[in-house]
Amino acid sequence: MATLTAESYNTGFLPTWCPGCGDFGIWKSLQGAFAKLGIGPDDGFIVYGIGCHGNMYDWMKMYGFAGLHGRALPVAQGAKLANHSLPVVVVSGDGDCLGEGGNHFMHAAKRNPDITVVIHDNQVYGLTTGQASPTAKPGFKTKSTPEGSTDAPVNPLALALVSGATFVARGFAGDLPGLTSLMAEAMNHKGFAVLDVMQPCVTFDKVHTYQWYRQRLYRLADSGYTPDNKLKALEKAMEWGDKIPLGVFYKEDKPTSEALEPALSGEPLNRLPLEVAHWDKLLNEFV
Amino acid sequence: MRDSVTWKIGGEAGFGIMSAGTVLARTFTRAGYHIFAVNDYPSLIRGGHNIVTVRMSSLPFNGINKDLNILVALNAETVEFHKNELSPDALVLFDPKDKEWVASDFPVGVRLIPIPLRDIISELHADGVMRNTVVLGATVALLGAPFEALFSVIRDQFAHKGEEVVAQNEKIARAGFDFIAKNFSTEVSMHLSPGTVTEKQLVVNGSEALGLGAVRAGLKFAAIYPMTPINAIISFLADHAKEFGVVYKQPEDEIAGINMAIGASIAGVRSMVATSGGGFALMVEGLSLAGMVEAPLVIDLGMRVGPATGMPTYTEQGELLFAIHAGHGEFARIVLAPADAEEAYSLTIDAFHLADKYQIPVFVLTDKYLNESQWCMKLSTLQKPVTLDRGKIITDDTGKPDGEFLRYDASPEDGVSVRSVPGVKHGQYYANSYEHDGLGHVTDNAVKRAEMVAKRLRKIKAIQSGIMPPQRDGDEQPEITFVTWGTTKGAVLSAAQILRAKGKKVVVVSYPWVFPFPVEETKTLLSSSSRVIDVEQNATGQLAYLIRAETGIDIQEKFLKSDGRPWLPEEIVDRIK
Fold this sequence. Notes:
The complex is a heterodimer of chains A (287) and B (577). Chain A has helices at 22-37, 72-82, 94-100, 102-111, 156-163, 176-188, 210-216, 230-237, 279-284; strands at 45-48, 63-66, 88-93, 115-121, 124-125, 131-132, 167-172, 193-198, 217-219, 244-251.
């Protein structure tokens, strides 16, 4: 097999994202991470939500499922249970994953399936031309909040932590090498990995620009932080202002949802025969 | 000696009412009888009034009728609630400590069997809940069956709890049996004529029959949020998950449930969901998704009384049109409607086959009466071989160069294109909720859109060529043609028997396959009778509506009922003028 590079995953379709969109950085990092891990276009499965992020499948050569708004995580979990040897990644957005799909996010985290979810977090609904998303900060002016958002924002990292995610990290779409290695680390993690990616919306958000982020982001690893304590991680997840932490907040080894499933101790379900082995024994339970 | 006895036990929830019904049903199937058991209970865990009705017969029959031959009252309310239902020569079993009933409390002919249930229990140092076991012993004696028939079931039921528990239950059941033998030895009016079934039978509720069908068909994944009346499917699958290599996952809601099942289906396994009306309302968005990405999927929609939360533990056929019309956009689907456990089993196997063959969602439309009632089935019926065919699917290597595997190839005449599964070499594609081209890439091109719509809807034509025709049961040149579907069929068949005994020529037309609708067969069947009567358990006549929409035949006479209680054959007969 030819060596995998980021280009191995191009489809020939040109992205329809706005020039300068943070989605480009996430897309390229994802390609790089798959190449780094040797997962080719036929080997993995990406489930996309609905939103600007979700349009990625058209230019991302890999088995894909472009589902319904908010419902990417259940589809991914069903696929993972049907074939637990299949690498499964969810590409979602802040509205998709934390608004419409908030309940699914919480429950996926508590089950700990071996799935990586990449959240394109830009505080706005870009595809519907700029309304506030669940992560919009108070005072943030959008088409749906002309006087500034009044709701408290969802904190994806804190929510992931208290819900039971076993890998919780923040990335930045403007840092290709850093994001690529963070994604590879998230995918390598055995368990539910949440990667919240700061992604400037160049069209509908004139506040949270690349520049804005660059002035505030700092690497957790550089500050001597170790991602091994949930309470410490929660405290770090609350840090937002002049300084915004980047990197892995928390990591824990814990059995995955699939590892705890009695029927999945051997071959994946999709390779098992359809015929029932002990049919007569089963029938006699009801005699 | 009589051919059929209907027995009813009532008491508060928590009195072991349901399990008593199961034990009795199993006792008599083992003794060669046909049985049927139906429950009636409010949506409570403790308290409230619970009843189970078990009919045992040496001859085949369809569901319950108006007879009530033996009433077992574990509290005074049971007598008060049901004494007006008693057949003229019925027996009433009760504990005088609940109330000292006397013959004058009942119509002439009813005979009282007072049993000191509490005294017997306390003499044997047993728990009060075991009064149900005393009355089972007494019932077996009154029906003229040997104690061993009951004991064999008790032994199997408690074997896993050890010999001591088995012995204690035997002692308690025998106390009830001996009490009758000693004090009511001349009471032989309810003795049953010998059982006629010579082969082994199963006792299953409709949910278990459906679960057996699913497992037999190769089900590998189910995501089912708990909801009455389909909870027994969850227990059945969860209990056997390891043994059969099945994953049952409890989702956070029905929306997650159907999306998980679609994900599993796309990843290559046979998958299903089950729910009732309210849960299905949440699934509707996902149903449309299954239609668009052409994911095979089986849905058990177990109807109960609606709208909204309705009467959750009661039965209705109110969602036929909902199942047919649910979902935004237009796509193909099949709706099957079993009338009994045997059909629930066989139609579920068919449902998985059809879902794979046409890559569409297929409904098994059941109801509380089917899902939770207990039915007998011959073991040999379930031992018949089944054909398992996954349809057009590639699980190895498509052999196509990269980017050339057209999962949604629009050219096949039946609209069904070959699918691959994530992980299959050279099979990469996108399952896309957006309108898409052959590979699954998004498109809003007018020509391609029209092509894809036509592709998906051509499946309907292909399906129509293989529709299971309506069932016709009855006489030539009928005076009355009954039209019905689902579980109402049982009561209608019994009503037809009663009418035939009165000299009427009657036909029953029923629909195990409701949609796509068998148009031509229906036209032929309904044209042979001057009087056509639609019988359904809903308020608006949904089958009649469908028949009119599909055939133009406007059925004038409708027998409809929406009180949450299943039709009894006598109620149908009474309405025939």
